Amino acid sequence: MSEVKELKVVLDGIDISDNSQEMIASEKFVEEMKKNDYLPTDNYVALRDKKMSNIRGKKISTQEDVEIYAYSQVIKDDKGVKTVVIMKIV
């Protein structure tokens, strides 16, 4: 059985509830995942505010196939806006 890993990524300045930022959010998410040794295999990653996303990917160091279950939420406060993505990787 695979080990389940938890991961949190913060996309500063990104508001996924704004449709015009979808592509930017996807690109930034892929960059952050690469920093954590994972690469989504889909060309585009759809993140939705207060929704769960199922993303196929690979662990870069081992090329092992993984499933990424990601919950995304937009947080707006006096410091600005950010999208927080909390994941379980199996």
Molecular structure report:
There is one protein chain. The protein is of the alpha+beta class. The chain contains 1 helix and 5 strands. It has one helix spanning 22-35; strands spanning 5-12, 38-40, 51-59, 64-77, 80-89. Strands 1-5-4-3-2 form a 5-stranded antiparallel beta sheet, with helices on one face. A hairpin with a 2-residue loop joins strand 4 and strand 5 (80-89). The model has no long low-confidence stretch (mean pLDDT 94).
Biggest beta sheet attributes: 5 strands, antiparallel
Question: Please, what is the average pLDDT?
Answer: 94
Question: Strand content of the residues, in percent?
Answer: over 45%
Spell the H/E element sequence. Answer: EHEEEE
Assembly form of the protein: single chain
Q: Regions with pLDDT < 50 over 5+ consecutive residues? A: none
SS summary, helix count: 1
The number of distinct β-strands equals 5
Q: Decide which structural class fits the backbone.
A: alpha+beta
Helicity, in percent? 10-25%
CA distance, first residue to last residue: 9 Å
Radius of gyration: 13 Å
Spatial shape = elongated
Strand order of the largest sheet: 1-5-4-3-2
Q: Could you outline the blueprint of secondary structure elements for this entry?
A:
Blueprint: E1 5-12, H1 22-35, E2 38-40, E3 51-59, E4 64-77, E5 80-89
Antiparallel strand pairs: 1-5, 2-3, 3-4, 4-5
Question: Characteristics of this structure?
Answer:
single chain; 90 residues; alpha+beta; 5-stranded antiparallel sheet; 1 helix
